[in-house]
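My current task is to audit a protein record that another person submitted. Thanks in advance; the entry in question is below:
***
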Amino acid sequence: MIRNDSARIDPKRRATIDYKKKQFATPSYQQQDYPHRLNLYHVPPTTEIRLEDFEQWAIDRLRILAELEACSFRNKTPAETAEHIKPLLDKWLRLDANSSSAQGCTDTRLQDQRRKDHYSHFILRLAFSSTEDLRRRFTRVEGALFRLRFQTENARERQDFVASLSLDWEAVSDQEKCILAQDLLNATPNLKKSDIEDGGWFKVDFETVTELVEARRIFVKGGKAYVPSKEQMSIVLAGFHDRLEQGLELTARALPRLDEDDRLSPILNHLSNNFAIPDSTLADSDTALSGATINASSIDLLSAHFPLCMRNLHMTLRKNNHLKHFGRLQYTLFLKGLGLTMEDCLIFWRQSFKLITDETFNKEYRYNIRHTYGDVGGDAVRRGRGYSPFSCQKILTEHPPGSGESHGCPYRHFSVDNLTSLLQVTGVNDRDVLRGVKEDVDKKRFHIACNRVFEWAHKTEIRQVKDDGTWKTADLDTIVHPNTYFKRSYLLKRGLAGDSGQSQADNMEM
């Protein structure tokens, strides 16, 4: 008989740890320092933050990335993009250089800015790693943001940052430079002989700098590309892209484990859904228009400033003297956002429904309008405020129109022929604009198509306010709300440039 030794440890359990001790162990976090303004985001953050900061920091960064993507879609030059993005960066994702503070990188203000930048990147990395399309788009816009910051960085601080990187490159010796001097001079544009002797050169695998090879701006020999120091941005950017792509793939594998946390999953899903078009809400200040008379009798005149979705609803209402439920809801909330009072809204709809009696209107439609304004129904919190006007994101993603319905976004829900006909009816006859709209729709860039039409219809006024300097760049950012479209159109056409109001970005919420 084998004797059982109670003191003997089972070999299969020797290295195990009590799961309770492991589950409830106190986690150890590490406070990170940020010596440089630029960041390759190689090391993930480990300190605790509030759930409110988790969401808000991601939203602020998403605003910047959405604007960068919009600038790319609208074919803005790098200089125009930098001019457009700079005030938005200063507002939502500010990063000051070390030289801006007497304390240097140890300044608490700089550390807080860089901490927000660091966390917001990794939060969005979680949100946009689920599909190949999201990973590709995220890599592209993050690369554009890094390039913009690298180009605007102080020269000395940029060199300090590059020196701190462990990039796979090799410095070219003076002897090798002398041997290859003529080849380097012939292969590198706008290069002087003194630049070869005095400037720094690096050797990297040519696959690392395909952008420079494609443009024939460097010398390649034996699979190595000889890159001058002035072109080091291409090397750093290539390293940034490689690390980000690898990080996104690793994040995608770890995503299933996040499903257990019901606090983060809804936030991440909402962020990824809003990557195409950031959601927005309208503040009370955006409904105030100086000198505008908004009542039931003025809607027909004001409809000239409506975006295409609301213009289509207004035209259908005037043609059929009726709109179905979701059309009425979308249009009523838009009119509410213009500043139309509930009493005037009831008058407007009663006058528009000419084919029904007062009794039918009061029985079937009056209550819904009052409920939309928060006059009746709803809980105690919402009562008195009602529902908010629909943003572009909500119109695009919720309640697609069915047969006989007129709500939704024409750029998404209309066929190309019907969309072209509607645009021509509203006065858009420029062939280049119609061609651009078709391309945007084919690539599912619906809000870019809408902004393209707006810029064409207001090109003279936009040029004037830019030349006068009466509107800031942030006042002309990408439109993502129908009521912002109306207000901006009204102010531009009426010449009220001095009352441009707050940018819609002030009131964006995800």
Notes: Confidence is low (pLDDT under 50) at residues 497-510.
